[in-house]
Amino acid sequence: MSVENPVERHHEPEVEAPEQETPSVELVETMQEGRETLMETLQLSVSNTHIKDYTDPIGRSAHGHAPNKHDVRSAFNVNPNIFRNEFDLSFIPNGHEVLWYMVENKEKLIESDTPVFVDTDCNDESRWQQIESTRDVAPIRPECEARIRAEA
Description:
The protein is mainly α. It has helices at 6-9, 25-47, 72-75, 81-85, 96-104, 106-111, 125-136, 142-151; strands spanning 54-55, 62-63. It has a two-stranded antiparallel ribbon with strand order 1-2. The N and C termini lie far apart (85 Å).
């Protein structure tokens, strides 16, 4: 006597996938117009947004100004690649701590293989003075200052 395998005996009927209709030209144009309108609305919303203050998510310090006030990448033309190559990951380019880090580690940054600035020489003393002046009005927590100075 032979025993049938129930799995072999059970066969699912083959189901054909329904044919997909090609969207009409009108539907595609309507979708594109809707996407363009959405993008315009989003861009307008973003351009009309004014952030008055924020909290640095890493340094946990509250800032009484917009996040781009002294982002070192735009304010001082600091090379964005230097963050990947030379900076401690606990700093963000628009936080107060990065200003302190740059001043305390000036020589190390100048000597690194990565250019510090995108538009001037790494030894540009006027640029370093601007960074130091900004640092002087950008307070950080005492324990953060102590850590930066200890690591320099």
